[in-house]
C-alpha cells in the first residue's frame, strides 16, 4: 500500500538493537479517520541480518507504535516546577531557536550543548552534528553512544585505523570457534545469537567469558566466569598461550601489522598461573580457550558492554584485536573482531562523527585536510571548525552543573535514567538556563526537566536510513501517520537551525536530500565509502557499505581490501591472500601492549560487594518504548538484584526481600533474586526500571561515572556497593 510495499507489507528495519533485523510492517488505513496505522510486524525473510527471525521486541513493534501517551504537540513550561502546557509546534520551534540564539550571542558557542542518540536516523545525526560543529561552532555535542560503543570505536581506530567492524554477520556462519566476551548476546542481540547457535549446533565451539552465568553462558562449550574487571589479564594470557603454542600467523604479522616486536617480552608477564590468579579462572579453562582459538581454521569474537563499559575499555578492544592480528584471523570469511552495537543506528552515528572530534564520513576536526573538506562541504569559511574537543558525556553534564554550559538540547534519549551516577545529569539540567528535549512519548525521566519538549515522529513515521552492526544501510520509510504535529527529528533540527539564522545551510525538502548531501562526506580515495548508495537503491533492498559505486554488489562483507579486488572475492582462485590496507599512517594494523589494570573502584570494608548492571531479554534501554508494551511487561515484569546464595544467607535475605544497594554516589532499593548465576561477593541489577516505575528503582543512582581516558566511556560494569536488607520503598 506504499512505496516499497512487498509481500503485503512494507519493508523496514527494527527500531531497537543494533542487529538491525528486517521487518515487514503491515499498515492499514483506519476507516474511521483515514490515518495509516501499523497493525503487525513480522520478520523480513529477505533481509540479510535476520532472514525472517525477530525477537519479542521487534515482533511487538506495532503494539509499541499504538501505545498511548504520544506527544501530539509541543509542551512548554512557564518556569521550573510549573506544569507543562501544550504549545503549537511552530511556536515552540520559534521559542527554542530564539532562546538558543540569545544564549549563543550572549555567552558564545560553548554555552550550547547537544545530547543526541544512536536511535536517530543518519540524516538527523548528520544535521545535529552540522548545526553544532559547523554553525553554532561548538564541539559540545555528545551522544548516548558514549555509554555504549565509544570504547569499541576508539579501540578499533587505534588498532585498525577506523571505527567499525572489519567483517560481518556472515562470519558467524563460517567460524569454527566463537569467543563471546562481555556480551550476553542471547538476551541483548537474540537474533544474532540464534544465528551463531546454528553454527554451534553444526559443530563450532562457543567460549563465553562473563562474570555472570548468563543465558549466553548456558549455551557455552566453555564458560569462563571471570572476576569483574580482569579481561585484559585474560586477553594477554590467551595471547601468551597462542604464542607459546605456535599458533601465530607470522606471514600475516609481517605483511600487515606493526608493533609486534615488543609483544613477546610484554606477554611474558602473563603466564597462565598468574592470569588464573588475577581472573579467578581455572588454568585449565584458560589453556582450553587458547587451544581452541589457536587450532581454529576461522574464529570470530563478539563483545559489547562487558569490555566497553570500563575505565580501560579502549585497551580491552586493542587486546582483543591483538588476538586476531596474531592469528591472522581478520578480513577473511569466518574471522574477525565483531563488536555489536546496542542501538539501531549507533553505527551510523559513529559514521556521522557525533562523538568528540568526529565529522561525517569518519573524519575528524583534528586532521587539517578533513576539517577543510567538511568546511567546503558545509559552505562555511575555512577555519570555522574548531579543534578544541570535549571530554565526553559525564564531563558535559558536570560543566553544565558548574554553569559553563547554559543550554542543552536532548534528542531521542533519556540521560536522567541512563547515565552512570545520574545525579550529575540532574544537577546539570537543573542548573541550565534552557533544557530542550525531543521525544515521542510525553513521560520520560528527562522530559520532567525540560523547559520545552518538541514532539518527534517514531520509527516508520518518517523516512531515514539506519546502519546496523555489520554496516548494512536500511531505509526506514515513513508509512504510518504520526500523531498531531509530530515531526521527524531531522526536520525539527533543520527548522530550529533555519530560525537561528542558518537557513542557507539547513533548507531541505526531504530526508533524501539530506542523505544525498551526507554521503559526500566520505573520502572516495579510501575505497570504503558509500557514495554508491541512494534512496532509490535502498527502497529496493539494504546495502552494506563499502559501496563506492552504484553498480557494485549489495553485500560487501569485508573492509580494508584496497587492491581493487571485489569485496566479495575473498577466496582467490589461486589461494593467494588478499592484500589488506588499513587506514593507519603506515597502512598496517597495530599491536598494542596493554597491561592489566584494576577497575576504578574496588570493594573494601565500607563497600564490600561489586555491582554489575545489564539488560534483560524483553525490555530495552530505559523502557521509554518497551515499557509501553503489555506483552513485554508480562515477560520481564520488574527490577531485581541478583545475589549469590552464600551472600544472601549472610545478609539474612530471601527471594523477594528488599535490598538497599548503596554506593558512594547513591542508592537503589530492589527485590532480591537469590541465584548462583553471580559470583559470591558480586551482584547484578538490570538498569531498565527508573523513576516512572517507582522510587529508588534507578540503579544508575549507584553506578560509577569514572571514565576511560581515551573513549570517555563510564565504567558501569564495576562499582563497589553495600547490600543491606530493608523495607520495600
Ligand atoms: Fe530488533 Fe534486535 Fe530483536 Fe532483531 S534482535 S528484532 S533488531 S531487538
TrEMBL record:
Keyword Oxidoreductase included in the entry's annotation: yes
Keyword Acetylation: no
4Fe-4S Mo/W bis-MGD-type domain mapped to chain residues: 7-69
Keywords of this entry: 4Fe-4S, Iron, Iron-sulfur, Metal-binding, Molybdenum, Nitrate assimilation, Oxidoreductase
Gene3D superfamilies: 2.40.40.20, 3.40.50.740, ADC-like domains (2.20.25.90), Dimethylsulfoxide Reductase, domain 2 (3.40.228.10)
Cofactors: [4Fe-4S] cluster; Mo-bis(molybdopterin guanine dinucleotide)
Regions annotated as coiled coil: none
Protein family according to the UniProt entry: Belongs to the prokaryotic molybdopterin-containing oxidoreductase family. NasA/NapA/NarB subfamily.
Protein name: 4Fe-4S Mo/W bis-MGD-type domain-containing protein
Amino acid at each position: 500500500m506504499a512505496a516499497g510495499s512487498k509481500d503485503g507489507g512494507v519493508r523496514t528495519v527494527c527500531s531497537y538493537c543494533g542487529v538491525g533485523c528486517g521487518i515487514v510492517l503491515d499498515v492499514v488505513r483506519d476507516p474511521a479517520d483515514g490515518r495509516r496505522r501499523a497493525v503487525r510486524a513480522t520478520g523480513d525473510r529477505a533481509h540479510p541480518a535476520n532472514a525472517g527471525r525477530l525477537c519479542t521486541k521487534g515482533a511487538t513493534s506495532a503494539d509499541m507504535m499504538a501505545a498511548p501517551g504520544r506527544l501530539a504537540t509541543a509542551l512548554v513550561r512557564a518556569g521550573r516546577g510549573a506544569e507543562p502546557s501544550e504549545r503549537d509546534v511552530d511556536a515552540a520551534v520559534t521559542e527554542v531557536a530564539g532562546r538558543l540564539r540569545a544564549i549563543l550571542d550572549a555567552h558564545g558557542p560553548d554555552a550550547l550543548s547537544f545530547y543526541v542518540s544512536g536511535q536517530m536516523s543518519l540524516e538527523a545525526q548528520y544535521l545535529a552534528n552540522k548545526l553544532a560543529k559547523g554553525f553554532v561552532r561548538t564541539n559540545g555535542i555528545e551522544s548516548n553512544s558514549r555509554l555504549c560503543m565509544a570504547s569499541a570505536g576508539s579501540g578499533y581506530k587505534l588498532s585498525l585505523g577506523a571505527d567499525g567492524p572489519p567483517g560481518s554477520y556472515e562470519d558467524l556462519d563460517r567460524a569454527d570457534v566463537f569467543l563471546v566476551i562481555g556480551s550476553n548476546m542471547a538476551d541483548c542481540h537474540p537474533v544474532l545469537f540464534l544465528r551463531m547457535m546454528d553454527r554451534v549446533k553444526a559443530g563450532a565451539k562457543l567460549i563465553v567469558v562473563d562474570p555472570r552465568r548468563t543465558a549466553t553462558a548456558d549455551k557455552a562449550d566453555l564458560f569462563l566466569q571471570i572476576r569483574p574487571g580482569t579481561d585484559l589479564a585474560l586477553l594477554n594470557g590467551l595471547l601468551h598461550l597462542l604464542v607459546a603454542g605456535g599458533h601465530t600467523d607470522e606471514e600475516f604479522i609481517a605483511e600487515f601489522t606493526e608493533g609486534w616486536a615488543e609483544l613477546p617480552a610484554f606477554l611474558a608477564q602473563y603466564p597462565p598461573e598468574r592470569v588464573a590468579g588475577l581472573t579467578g579462572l581455572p588454568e585449565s579453562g584458560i589453556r582450553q580457550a587458547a587451544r581452541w582459538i589457536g587450532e581454529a581454521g576461522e574464529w570470530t569474537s563478539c563483545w559489547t558492554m562487558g569490555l566497553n563499559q570500563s575505565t580501560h575499555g579502549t585497551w580491552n578492544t586493542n587486546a582483543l584485536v591483538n588476538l586476531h592480528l596474531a592469528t591472522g584471523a581478520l578480513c577473511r570469511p569466518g574471522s574477525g573482531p565483531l563488536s555489536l552495537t546496542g542501538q539501531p543506528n549507533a553505527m551510523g552515528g559513529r559514521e556521522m562523527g557525533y562523538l568528540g572530534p568526529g565529522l561525517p564520513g569518519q573524519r575528524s576536526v583534528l586532521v587539517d585536510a578533513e576539517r577543510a573538506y567538511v568546511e567546503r562541504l558545509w559552505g562555511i569559511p575555512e577555519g570555522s571548525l574548531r579543534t578544541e574537543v570535549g571530554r565526553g558525556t559525564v564531563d558535559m553534564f558536570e560543566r553544565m552543573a558548574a554553569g559553563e554550559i547554559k543550554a542543552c538540547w536532548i534528542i531521542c534519549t533519556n540521560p536522567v535514567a541512563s547515565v552512570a551516577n545520574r545525579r550529575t545529569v540532574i544537577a546539570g539540567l537543573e542548573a541550565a538556563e534552557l533544557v530542550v528535549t525531543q521525544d515521542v512519548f510525553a513521560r520520560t525521566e528527562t522530559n520532567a526537566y525540560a523547559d520545552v519538549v518538541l514532539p518527534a515522529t517514531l520509527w516508520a513515521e518518517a523516512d531515514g536510513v539506519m546502519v546496523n552492526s555489520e554496516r548494512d544501510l536500511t531505509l526506514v520509510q515513513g508509512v504510518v501517520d504520526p500523531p498531531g504535529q509530530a515531526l521527524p527529528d531531522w526536520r525539527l533540527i533543520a527548522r530550529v537551525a533555519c530560525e537561528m539564522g542558518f537557513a542557507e545551510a539547513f533548507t531541505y525538502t526531504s530526508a533524501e536530500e539530506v542523505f544525498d548531501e551526507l554521503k559526500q562526506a566520505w573520502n572516495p580515495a579510501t575505497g570504503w565509502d558509500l557514495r554508491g548508495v541512494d534512496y532509490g537503491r535502498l527502497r529496493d533492498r539494504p546495502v552494506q557499505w563499502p559501496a563506492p559505486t552504484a553498480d557494485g554488489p549489495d553485500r560487501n562483507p569485508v573492509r580494508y581490501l584496497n587492491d581493487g579486488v571485489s569485496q566479495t572475492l575473498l577466496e582467490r582462485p589461486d589461494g593467494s591472500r588478499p592484500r589488506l590496507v588499513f587506514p593507519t599512517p603506515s597502512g598496517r594494523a597495530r599491536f598494542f601492549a596493554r597491561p592489566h589494570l584494576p577497575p576504578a573502584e574496588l570493594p573494601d570494608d565500607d563497600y564490600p560487594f561489586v555491582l554489575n548492571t545489564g539488560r534483560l531479554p524483553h525490555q530495552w534501554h530505559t523502557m521509554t518504548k518497551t515499557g509501553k508494551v503489555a506483552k513485554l511487561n508480562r515477560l520481564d515484569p520488574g527490577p531485581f538484584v541478583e545475589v549469590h546464595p552464600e551472600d544472601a544467607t549472610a545478609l539474612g535475605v530471601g527471594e523477594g526481600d528488599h535490598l538497599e544497594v548503596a554506593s558512594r554516589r547513591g542508592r537503589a532499593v530492589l527485590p532480591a533474586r537469590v541465584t548462583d548465576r553471580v559470583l559470591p561477593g558480586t551482584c547484578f541489577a538490570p538498569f531498565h526500571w527508573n523513576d516512572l516505575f517507582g522510587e529508588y528503582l534507578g540503579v544508575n543512582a549507584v553506578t560509577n561515572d569514572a571514565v576511560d581516558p581515551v573513549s570517555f566511556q563510564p565504567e558501569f560494569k564495576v562499582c563497589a556497593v553495600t547490600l543491606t536488607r530493608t523495607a520495600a520503598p
